[in-house]
Amino acid sequence: MIRAGLAGIGVAVAAAPLGCFVVWRRMAYFGDATAHAAILGVALSLAFSMSIFIGTMVVALLMALTVSVLSGRGYAMDTLLGVLAHSALAFGLVAVSFISGVRIDLMAYLFGDILAVSRVDLVVIWGGAALVVALISWRWSALLTSTMNEDLAHASGIDPKREQLVLTLALAITVAFAIKVVGVLLIAAMLIIPAAAARPLSKTPEGMAFVAGIIGALSAVIGLRAAYVFDTPAGPSIVCVAAFTFLATSVFKGFRSSV
Question: Which CATH superfamily is domain 2-250 in?
C-alpha cells in the first residue's frame, strides 16, 4: 500500500502541470488518443523483449507526432483523433493476441495495477515524473505565452510549434510511466480531472498547477484507501475520488458566483 501510494502521488505530481496545459489548450481528446496508443507499445515491447516503458513512450510519441503532422492536412481534428485513438487501441489488442509464450493481463494495462508496483517501478515512475516536471518548469513561460496567444508568442520570439512538441514529449513520458498505475483507459482522466477541479480554486496558472497536484495526490491516497475498504479496483477508485472532487469544486464555483 505504501508503494502504491507513492506511485499514485508520483503520477499526480507529473500530471498536474501537464494536465493544466491539456485543459487550457483543450487537448483532452489528444491526450486520450496518445494514451490509447500505449497498448500498441505494450504489444511491441513484449514482442521484441524490451522495456514496456520505452515501448509505450516511443509509440505514444509517434502517435502524438502523427496527429500534429496530419492536423494541418485538411482533416478535422476530432475525426482524426477518433480514428487514430481507436485504431491504435484495436491494433494493440490484436497484436497482443499474437504473442505466444507470454502471459498477459490486459486488465492491468487497461485499468492499471497500482497494487503490483515494485521498487523498480517506483524508480521509473518518480524518475519520469521528475523529468516531466523539469521539462514543464524549464519551458513554463514559453508554454504559457504560446497557450494564451500564438501571435504574442511569435512577437516574443517563441515558436508555438516547438512548445507543442515539448508538451507532446511530456505527454508521451507521462503515458509511459502512468500505464502501470491507472492504465491506458484512465490516464487521460488523471490528466484532466484534477486540473479541471483545481480551476475554480485558483487565481493564477501556477496556483492552478499546484492545486491540481494536491488534488491528484489526495485522490490517489483516498482512492487507495477506498479500494481497500470497499474491495473495489484501485485505479478506477482513484479516478472516482478525483471526479467527486471536481463535482465539489464545481458546486463551490456555482455557489460563489450566485453570492
Answer: ABC transporter involved in vitamin B12 uptake, BtuC (1.10.3470.10)
